[in-house]
Design a protein that fits this description.
181 residues; alpha+beta; 4-stranded antiparallel sheet; 3 helices; globular
Length: 181
């Protein structure tokens, strides 16, 4: 059994405490005893690195520098689709969100510019995981959760210790030069 933690840096959108409690209430009604994602750990992963055996100070320093270069527009994030895969339950947006996708691409570009690679095989699939489970896939529309996204964060998961460390946050203040036209 692994006794030493792994370290997993990642960029994410964090749910506000109020929305997190509301989402946890939904998750509790669906989980059938499965261990839910703690409200303080609820997030949407935008980009993730490989896992590290030792605390990755140099990688984190590069990611913190990368975070300061990202400029993107604030946006509304609706999570209005409940999605069960064969291993998890998650909330997702029911349609593509151009400003979310633009932010995510900016983060990937900044990581590359900082010389930090994405986790091999990882791809962006906008979702907020509620809990892990075994069961058949299913999807349905729900009266969703939504909030105004005005910042993103760099977090480090201490895998196996149920701990997320907030390393930095940056506001979305515009200047991402994104146009809907």
């Amino acid at each position: 059994m692994r006794t030493k933690a792994l370290y997993r840096p990642f960029f994410a959108l964090q749910t506000s405490p109020v929305i997190a409690r509301q989402i946890d209430y939904l998750a509790e009604s669906l989980a059938n005893g499965a261990r839910r994602i703690l409200p303080e750990h609820q997030h949407m992963t935008l980009a993730i690195t490989a896992d590290y055996d030792d605390y990755p100070y140099a990688v984190i320093k590069a990611l913190l520098r990368a975070g300061t270069t990202i400029m993107a527009e604030p946006f509304d994030l609706p999570l209005d689709r409940l999605s069960f895969s064969n291993r998890s339950a998650a909330l997702r947006p029911s349609s593509s969100l151009p400003l979310l996708n633009a932010l995510q691409r900016s983060i990937i570009d900044a990581m590359r510019g900082a010389g930090v690679m994405l986790r091999p095989g990882w791809s962006f699939s906008p979702r907020q995981t509620l809990f892990y489970r075994n069961g058949p896939p299913e999807q349905r529309r729900i009266e969703g959760f939504h909030w105004r996204v005005e910042q993103f964060a760099l977090l480090c998961s201490h895998v196996g210790q149920t701990r997320h460390e907030t390393l930095g946050t940056w506001p979305l203040t515009g200047d991402g030069q994104y146009s809907l036209f």
